[in-house]
Amino acid sequence: MADSHIHNKMSTSCKHVIDEGKPILLVTHDFDDTWQFLCGDNNHYDYQDARAVCAGCIFEKDPSLQGVETLDIGYGAVREKAGSKSWVLEELVPDDDED
Ligand SMILES: [Zn+2]
Ligand SMILES: [Zn+2]
What we know:
Layout: E1 10-14, H1 15-18, E2 26-29, E3 35-38, E4 50-54, H2 55-61, E5 75-78, E6 88-91
Parallel strand pairs: 1-3
Antiparallel strand pairs: 1-4, 2-3, 2-5, 5-6
This protein binds zinc ion (2 copies).
Protein backbone atom coordinates (compact mmCIF):
# COMPACT_ATOMS: atom_id res chain seq x y z
CA MET A 1 0.00 0.00 0.00
CA ALA A 2 1.20 3.47 -0.80
CA ASP A 3 2.15 5.72 2.03
CA SER A 4 -0.49 8.35 1.58
CA HIS A 5 0.16 10.69 4.45
CA ILE A 6 2.88 12.78 5.98
CA HIS A 7 4.13 11.29 9.21
CA ASN A 8 5.63 14.38 10.74
CA LYS A 9 2.46 16.19 11.60
CA MET A 10 2.61 16.40 15.36
CA SER A 11 -0.67 15.93 17.06
CA THR A 12 -1.80 15.00 20.51
CA SER A 13 -3.59 12.07 22.01
CA CYS A 14 -3.83 10.99 25.62
CA LYS A 15 -2.42 8.16 27.64
CA HIS A 16 -5.86 6.57 27.95
CA VAL A 17 -6.05 6.06 24.21
CA ILE A 18 -2.41 5.27 23.52
CA ASP A 19 -1.41 3.38 26.67
CA GLU A 20 -4.73 1.95 27.80
CA GLY A 21 -6.42 1.36 24.46
CA LYS A 22 -9.50 3.45 25.12
CA PRO A 23 -11.51 4.55 22.09
CA ILE A 24 -11.19 8.05 20.69
CA LEU A 25 -14.42 9.89 21.43
CA LEU A 26 -13.28 13.49 21.00
CA VAL A 27 -11.38 14.89 18.03
CA THR A 28 -10.42 18.51 17.64
CA HIS A 29 -8.69 20.36 14.81
CA ASP A 30 -7.07 23.20 16.67
CA PHE A 31 -6.34 26.71 15.47
CA ASP A 32 -2.63 25.94 15.13
CA ASP A 33 -3.53 23.12 12.69
CA THR A 34 -2.72 20.35 15.13
CA TRP A 35 -5.17 17.59 15.97
CA GLN A 36 -6.18 16.14 19.28
CA PHE A 37 -7.52 12.62 19.66
CA LEU A 38 -8.86 12.17 23.16
CA CYS A 39 -10.84 9.59 25.07
CA GLY A 40 -13.39 12.25 26.03
CA ASP A 41 -12.99 11.94 29.77
CA ASN A 42 -12.43 15.04 31.83
CA ASN A 43 -9.39 13.66 33.54
CA HIS A 44 -6.56 15.21 31.55
CA TYR A 45 -4.57 17.34 33.88
CA ASP A 46 -1.16 18.03 32.43
CA TYR A 47 1.42 17.05 29.88
CA GLN A 48 1.92 13.71 31.58
CA ASP A 49 -1.46 12.63 30.26
CA ALA A 50 -0.62 13.72 26.72
CA ARG A 51 0.96 11.59 24.01
CA ALA A 52 2.46 12.94 20.79
CA VAL A 53 1.02 11.13 17.80
CA CYS A 54 0.93 11.33 14.02
CA ALA A 55 -2.53 12.41 12.86
CA GLY A 56 -2.24 10.40 9.65
CA CYS A 57 -1.44 7.21 11.51
CA ILE A 58 -4.36 7.68 13.87
CA PHE A 59 -6.76 8.14 10.96
CA GLU A 60 -5.30 5.11 9.23
CA LYS A 61 -5.66 2.91 12.28
CA ASP A 62 -9.27 3.78 13.03
CA PRO A 63 -11.53 3.82 9.96
CA SER A 64 -14.45 5.10 12.02
CA LEU A 65 -12.57 8.41 12.26
CA GLN A 66 -12.93 9.02 8.55
CA GLY A 67 -15.97 11.18 9.12
CA VAL A 68 -13.88 13.77 10.91
CA GLU A 69 -10.80 13.70 8.73
CA THR A 70 -12.09 16.71 6.83
CA LEU A 71 -12.86 18.71 9.94
CA ASP A 72 -12.04 22.39 9.41
CA ILE A 73 -9.59 24.18 11.64
CA GLY A 74 -11.45 25.51 14.64
CA TYR A 75 -13.88 22.60 14.91
CA GLY A 76 -14.17 19.60 17.11
CA ALA A 77 -16.27 16.45 16.97
CA VAL A 78 -17.55 14.17 19.68
CA ARG A 79 -19.28 10.81 19.59
CA GLU A 80 -20.89 8.72 22.26
CA LYS A 81 -19.22 5.40 21.70
CA ALA A 82 -16.37 3.65 19.95
CA GLY A 83 -16.89 2.90 16.30
CA SER A 84 -19.84 5.25 15.98
CA LYS A 85 -19.92 7.48 12.94
CA SER A 86 -22.48 9.80 14.50
CA TRP A 87 -20.13 12.66 15.18
CA VAL A 88 -21.51 15.83 16.69
CA LEU A 89 -19.60 18.86 15.49
CA GLU A 90 -18.81 21.77 17.71
CA GLU A 91 -17.08 25.07 17.10
CA LEU A 92 -13.96 25.61 19.17
CA VAL A 93 -13.48 28.82 21.13
CA PRO A 94 -10.27 30.61 20.20
CA ASP A 95 -7.76 31.40 22.91
CA ASP A 96 -8.18 34.94 24.07
CA ASP A 97 -4.61 36.03 23.45
CA GLU A 98 -5.11 37.72 20.11
CA ASP A 99 -5.42 41.43 19.45
ZN1 LIG B 1 1.86 8.68 10.27
ZN1 LIG C 1 -7.80 10.39 27.92
